[in-house]
Design brief:
about 250 residues, alpha+beta, L-fuculose-1-phosphate Aldolase, 8 helices, about 10% strand, Aldolase-II_Adducin_sf, actin filament binding, Class II aldolase
Length: about 250
């Protein structure tokens, strides 16, 4: 019987360094694309090896300051799992720990408080399929009702949040912001970037004051199915953006 190879310590170290660089890249891209809330919100990724360990940003750092070495390794509750002098925000990791704990496929979790995302999260109608980009998310956006600021002691909300997310890749946190998950950092970034774009498009279209054009349910389902084809979601985009940031901000890798 075939047995999968057990990763060596060197394999784990190599993968961990790659994840550090890719997560730092994601933080820099969020800053570059104006998708940050100063020092708040998190992007996290699960580390290889035994135990539940993750990388998150040091609390109080701007996303544009993040480097591979500044990311903090934490346990499932957001407590440091490495010697560090850098602050972490366990309460801010509540959303991430809940998703990571119940979604084995969610190696990466991203949460934002963007202007467009928060504006759509405040609308009763939610995200509308009014553009080709938006149509990728037709009937594919989870919604979680607002329950106040996420706190570590509110374990019951964590259960409801994971329940509401289900097997979706993206979620709108009502009156709060956006969330995406992915099997890779590239996939989670892809879904967050295009969910953000869909929100921006909707606000721009609504500002025109004209009735919105929404295709038939049959057409929406067709376009949604077109987006679902193809493997390695987001990899081509991610590789292009990596090349850009290696030219413009190579210090993210340090």
């Amino acid at each position: 019987m075939f047995s999968p190879a057990v990763p060596t310590p060197q394999d784990i170290a190599t993968t961990t360094q790659r994840l550090r660089e890719d997560l730092a890249l994601a933080y820099r891209l969020f800053a570059h694309l104006d998708m940050t809330d100063t020092v708040y919100t998190h992007l996290s990724v699960r580390l290889p090896g035994s135990g539940h360990r993750f990388l998150v940003n040091p609390y109080g750092y701007l996303f544009e300051e993040i480097t591979a070495s500044s990311l903090v390794e934490v346990d499932a509750r957001g407590q440091p799992a490495q010697p560090t002098t850098m602050p972490v925000n366990p309460a801010g990791f509540v959303i991430h720990s809940a998703v990571h704990g119940r979604r084995p496929d969610a190696a990466c979790v991203m949460h934002t408080h963007t202007l467009a995302g928060m504006a759509i999260a405040a609308q009763q109608g939610g995200l509308l399929p009014i553009n080709q980009i938006s149509m990728e998310f037709y009937n594919a956006v989870a919604v979680h009702e607002y329950e106040g600021i996420a706190e570590d002691r509110n374990l019951s909300e964590r259960e409801r949040l994971v329940r509401d997310l289900g097997d979706h890749k993206v979620m709108i946190l009502k009156n709060h912001g956006l969330l995406s998950v992915g099997a890779t950092i590239a996939e989670a970034f892809y879904y967050m970037y295009y969910l953000e774009q869909a929100c921006r498009i909707q606000l721009a279209a609504q500002s025109g004051g004209q009735p919105l054009s929404i295709p038939s349910p049959q057409m929406l389902a067709h376009v949604r199915s077109q987006f679902s084809t193809g493997a390695d979601k987001g990899e081509m985009l991610w590789n292009a953006l990596r090349r850009k940031m290696q030219r413009e901000q190579p210090d993210y890798m340090t």
